[in-house]
Amino acid sequence: MALLELSGLTKRFGAFTALDDISLLIERGEVHCLLGENGAGKSTLCNLVFGVHRPDAGTMTLGGEPFDPRGPAEALQRGVVMVHQHFSLVPNMTVAENLMLGRASAVLKPQDIIVRMEQLAAEYGLEIDPEARIDELSVGERQRVEIIKCLLGDPQLLVLDEPTAVLQPDEIDALLAICRQVALRGKSVILVTHKLGEISRVADRTTVLRQGRIIETVAMEGADIRSLVRSMVGRDVQSAGSVLAAAVDIEGKTPAKSSSDVGPTSPGEAVLQISDLVYRDPHGVPRLDGLSLTVGTGEIVGIAGVEGNGQTELGLILAGLAAPSGGAIVVGGTQVTGCTPQEITDAGVGIVPEDRHAVACIKELSVAENLYLGAIGKFSRFGLLDKSARRKAAETMMRDFDVRASSPDVSMASLSGGNQQKAVLARELSLDPLVFLLAAQPTRGLDVGAIEAVYNRIRAARDDGLGVLLISSELEELMAVSDRIAVIYRGKLVGELAAGSFSREAIGAMMSGHAHV
Amino acid sequence: MVMKNPKLAQGTRRKLVPLQVLVPVVSTVIALGIGLLIIAATGASVVEAIEAFWDGMAGSDFNIGASINRAISLALVGLGFIFASRANLTNVGGEGQIAMGGMFATAAALHGAGGLPLGLAFIVPLAVGTVAGAVWGGLAGFLKAARGTNEVISTLLLSFIALPLVYWSVESFHLLRKPISDVSSLPESAEIPDTTKLPLLFPDNGSPLHIGLLIAAIAVVVVWLVLKHSTLGLRLRAVGLNATASRRAGMRTSFYVILAMTVSGGLGGLGGAIMILGQQFYLTSDFSSGYGFDGLVVGLLSRGSAVGVVIGALLFGFLRSGSINMEISAHVPSAVVLICQGLIVIVIAGSAILTNRKVTR
Question: Which residue, A179, A171, A161, A167, is CA-closest to A42?
Fold first, then answer.
């Protein structure tokens, strides 16, 4: 008998139907992957199972009994646990203390926790120091604590919502191994992901969701990966080439580059020169520690690294939103170290910031207003706005960059993430002068179609002679798009690979600070 | 929730228009109804009270003029409020800005401006009062930009400084207090020279209506243009909605924060100057008597619209006149009208939740 049975589940948010008549069986002892693009309904489905939301229609049974959790507490009681994308750990407490949280009623002594942790370490290889403080742990280790927290009570069903998004390659491998171990012990695992490489390594069965509906559920043995991609995207992936393959990480391997993907063999003169860049955060902790980097005209330089190694700070400094504590930045011969955003823009720098909502656009303003946010005075006479001229220009820009919105006057918030990002790219790539583009995590949270568009824009910019710096935590993305990859670790570049010599293993090793190449 | 309105206005403006009109009207009617019940409860004659109230509001050319004159200052404070709120700043210091404006306008009128030709006799005090209010508001903007001080707190505290400053100035002979002529001389300034008083619009029919009306009308149009149709208005809005994104787009966010508060305070200061130069003619320690807070309410009720400010200011201006007369001739405490004002605010603020919820659906 199946452990969890969903029949006819429907969930609406206002007029939007997030899940539409979902029926699905989760067997005991299986790793069941949920595959789908952003907005396909994967997280909503998890939240229904974990009791965060309640379905508008349909029923669930767990172990043959009706299951209608009114909240996470009830789901936990029934043996359903969930690891969310965002961790719920208290940073300045130890691992053991975090594990005790929320269990005050269940008379658990610290000793009991430690004993239980030893059991879990023996069973699943989940080793971690109970006395370590959370803020001393890496992201992968923190996630391990979350999983231990889930397994403490010996659950029946473990739900993991996009657990690999924040991990580096060897941590992903370890996590997938843990999933298998959990399943081996007769428990069930629901793993949400949009990466096919992971699915083929861990899943027993995979359910593909698209626009809130189940497209298919397939057993992974002998399954055709490409047909899964087709189900997920809704069209044939061949047409999109290696870009798309990279986006969904097919088979976890480096996609072969077609000749058009590779830039000019010898990049031209330097457009961006960073030397000995140092940045200390307000607490005096060095986030950038003597970083030096050169980007030439007509090349895309990728920055690989586990998040939190200084990429964010590098992006903020290049955008003029943080002042470096030391070092120098020169763009096309102009000193821009510690300059204002306007001066940096004037030097010919386009910025696609990491945080689209906080930095790149103002979601309450219209698309047209966002497209000309840096040039509000461009369409004005005597200080009064010429809205019709602006609308016309915005329409042209939206057509050129395929920004899909019913009108330039609708609010930015009403656009999909992909169209918002296209609008940001449109604005930044239309700057004049423009010699250098920073794209920080440019495809984060976007669906496959939009990712493809972003890659194409970045490539086109490179072909037009721009220097491009691509900061990304997606290794596949970097390998598919970059002409050169530098690896950042603890605020420094620790190695560099030229196109043709990219390897996941070498980059992964450098990302964790292990090897120099 | 009312202050966070820009979000709401965007994109759904068309759907909201009927509600935006309906909500204040209905809440006013409900509040006035409750006010009548309270009057009945005090034992006074309701009919008498209504008569006295109506007479005070609009019973004569004089009363209509006086009501509109009151509305002028309220409108200016309200305009200042919506100007700041365009940048997502909440200026609750209208009272202090009025006080500074009135005090410095009095000083200018008494010391030097009186002899100036070509209307400068009253224009200069108006300008001085405006600048004084602008400095008082701009100070809060500067604190916000430089130190991140919450402007709600700083404008409020600056009011608590401004009011005693006025008191001090009318208590001190070496400042603005008029010389004692007999034992009943109050702590107040001397009357300002006739040349510095605002010219009347209809000097022949006895209406006290003065050219402050024209000044306020110009201010309404200018504020409306700036907020709705100018590059400055868009920049203020951008900075208020998302300072980081605005900074990235090249805007000097501190400048716009200070500017918004300066203009906001300046409008309040102008309101205070007009109260002295147009109506009261001498400075007393409590001359601002709640106009700042009423103006704040007018700004809140307008939901960011300049036209809404005009309507709200007229409503409150007439209510104030009516309540004064009601107290004098029908012996109903004017506090009843204050209660009504409070009720209007509560009902509108409460129904704003309702309209907001409708919109998000």
Answer: A161
